[in-house]
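My main concern about presentation is that the manuscript never shows what a single data entry looks like. An entry of this sort, consisting of the sequence and the corresponding backbone structure tokens, reads as follows:
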Amino acid sequence: MKQKLTILSIILLILAGMTLFFVEKETNPTILNIEPITNSEKGVSLEDKIGQMILVGFRGTDETNSSGIISAIKDVKIGGVVFFDYDIPSKSYVRNIINSNQVKNLITYLKSESDMPLFVAVDAEGGLVNRLKQKYGFLDIESPKEMAKNNSVGEEATKLAAELKDMGFNFDFAPVVDVDINPQNPVIGGLERSFSSDYNEVIVSAEAFITALHEKGIITSAKHFPGHGSSTSDSHLGMVDVTDTYKQDELNPYKSLQKAGLLDTVMTAHIINENIDPNYPATLSPLFLQNILRKEVGFNGVIISDDMQMGAITKEYGFSEAIVMAINAGCDIILASNNSASAYDDKLGYNIKNIILDAVNQGKISKERIVESYDRIIKLKKDFKIIN
């Protein structure tokens, strides 16, 4: 009798265990094989993952004079390049852009030399900030302010998107979603880069702009987070403090675009707001990038720094230290234009990789942080069919 009870007890325990298994299978994401947030590709070295976090500017207009960037593409496995028409160090208009056929051929060449498909980016906002200028034979695109005023955002952005697609670009550092709080702002309002002083109009215009570019498969970048429209100075030249001018409404475009599913990437601003972070600008601040952009706005995509060679960064923090701080704050892509007043650096991609790799080896940046950024970058490239 006792033996029968023992066997019965064992059977009951087995049945109970099976029940618990099936209940757990219904509620446990791991058992359900739900894809984890971090799904880093196996077989990719840490150095190559770091390379994907780097997007740099370069000199060269064709196969004969672009060897420096080709070396970085092959050796560093950089994530992307950015085109300019004007070379600031040499004060020359011979940089990357001469005419449409030349640009198309150069982009085709760069892509053919890369094992990992590249982000090929440009600043094409319209108006005064458009590297694809009419004098080179490109379309005349209205400024954002004109687009909003003329109710022509969709039309102008559609023209721009078609031109970008035809050239081979896949990434436009636009639209500017800064609210035009200070129309005399030397770097935003004064250049007609903002759609409007009304944040609702900024939202509507940005949605139309992004939608048009998406129709041609172009990645966009909402900038400059958390809002540069109220500033009174230019972060290209030095640190910008918006503590006394910033309005909470400047955050609304990011919230609305995120809710609409239209935030591909977000570009940070090199601005200080001591009411949020008394010590660091947004690009270097976890309080801005983690607490506000990630948690409050809810954005989990790629964060790209504004140019890390701008005066607001290099004069205050130094290039190397700022890169480490930016990554730890939450930046996934380090943008370096290689187009500042200082000397051109043909090895810039290598140098940035070494800065990041050394920081990882010294325990200043965790490997997990690199993997997190790499996964976001690869997802973005897959989402826009840059890679399969």
